[in-house]
Every structure is written in C-alpha cells, then in structure tokens.
Design a protein that fits this description.
The structure holds 2 protein chains of 2 kinds. By secondary structure, chain A is mainly beta. Chain A is built from no helices and 11 strands.
C-alpha cells in the first residue's frame, strides 16, 4: 500500500514554544490530507482537513490560530502547534487518501508524540 | 451524520481461538466501512473495507469482516487468533464532507488481547 511519513516521531518542548509536524505522502500525490489527535486509550478525533492550494477546513472546536496547517505541495502538509501548552500534549496522526473517491482507503502516518512541559 | 459504534472496550481471547470484534453502523445511504488496526505508539494500518458486493470481505493478516445490512453490523473476525494480533482495532465509516472530499469517522476502538 501507499506510504505516509511523519516527522518528528516524538518531540518534547517547553511551554510557549511552537512545534512543526510534517506529513508526507511518499509514493503518491495527495490533494487532501487529514490531521487527527488521539488521547490515551481514546479514538482518533479529526482536527482538520488540509487542502493543497487552499485553506484548511477545521472541525468545530479546533482553534485555527492555534493549530496552523499548510499544505505546501501535493506531497506535504504541515501542522504547527503555536505557543504550545501542556494541554496540547497528545499523539498527532496525519493521513492521506490515495484518491478522492469514497472507496479509497486512507493511509496513516506513524504519528507524532508531542509532550509539552 | 454517520457513525459507528464499537460496544466492547476490550476483548480477550485465547491464542488459537476464533475472535470477533464488533461494530455497528448508522448511515443515511450506502455504507462505506473500514477496519483499521493500531499497534502501540503507531499510526493506523488498513485491514479491510466494504464498499459493495460480497458480504464477506477478506483482508490483511487473515482477518475478515461480515457486512450484515439487516443488523447494520460489520464485525471483524479471524478464525484463529495469534498473540501478535493484540492491538487496538478501529471500525470506521466514510462520509462525504463536501468539496469533493470524504472523511473517516471512527468508532472508539476495541482493545484486543490474545492470551498465550
């Protein structure tokens, strides 16, 4: 299947700093990518849909100024957690569908563990 | 809005025994259903999907799922469980989110523990 990578896999930062997470589709182009957040022992919560060449679409309750998304190319989307605080500590996962039809499965990155001290 | 429910937080099964992880769905049209598996501190891996056709869908690692329209269920099964199958399993439904895009809505997940 298709491969999606994320970088970094783990990051620890001080409160107030900004952290950038990269998501890349390695062997296919993705006009759309999704960013999820997962709390321990919980399901994935969709944060936003990243669209190449246009603004991201954020889910209700997600602060767009807090979680900046940039879909710079057909293979790269970035999530920047600005002025991170301990409550932003979580597991962030990106995914990309290989195609836009309803029956295409989404391929997921390995996730990024963010710990804010 | 479409949704899926996984009624069991945890399923325990002995190695070699058959396993079932339950999922029911609620959709307004044709369901597009998926199963994913997540190992600790990892992303999700695709197992199988139902779009149309045969109700019994075969997927990766010996897993299969049975689509039952009358019971609105899509249970994940495997005839003989392995210890390495121990992981977190997510059922998901795909729905149209606008502007030509589809997004997945996940169940809460079921932790499968296979006991040696």
């Amino acid at each position: 299947g298709a491969v999606v990578s994320q970088h970094p896999s783990r990051v620890i930062c001080k409160s107030g700093t900004s952290v950038k997470i990269e998501c890349r589709s390695l062997d296919f182009q993705a006009t759309t990518m999704f960013w999820y957040r997962q709390f321990p022992k919980q399901s994935l919560m969709l944060m936003a849909t990243s669209n190449e060449g246009s603004k991201a679409t954020y889910e209700q309750g997600v602060e767009k100024d807090k979680f900046l998304i940039n879909h710079a190319s057909l293979t790269l989307s970035t999530l920047t957690v600005t002025s991170a605080h301990p409550e932003d500590s979580s597991f962030y996962i990106c995914s990309a569908p290989q195609g836009l039809t309803s029956y295409n499965e989404q391929f997921f990155g390995p996730g990024t563990r963010l710990t804010v001290l | 809005a479409q949704s899926v429910a996984q009624p069991e937080d945890q399923v325990n099964v002995a190695e070699g025994n058959p396993l079932t992880v339950k999922c029911t769905y609620s959709v307004s049209g044709n369901p597009y259903l998926f199963w994913y598996v997540q190992y600790p501190n990892r992303g999700l891996q695709f197992l199988l999907k139902y779009i149309t056709g045969d109700n019994l869908v075969k997927g990766s690692y010996g897993f299969e799922a049975e689509f039952n329209k009358s019971q609105t269920s899509f249970h994940l099964k495997k005839p003989s469980a392995l210890v390495s199958d121990s992981a977190l399993y997510f059922c998901a439904v795909k729905e149209y989110s606008g502007a030509g895009s589809y997004q997945l809505t996940f169940g809460k997940g079921t932790k499968l523990s296979v006991i040696p």
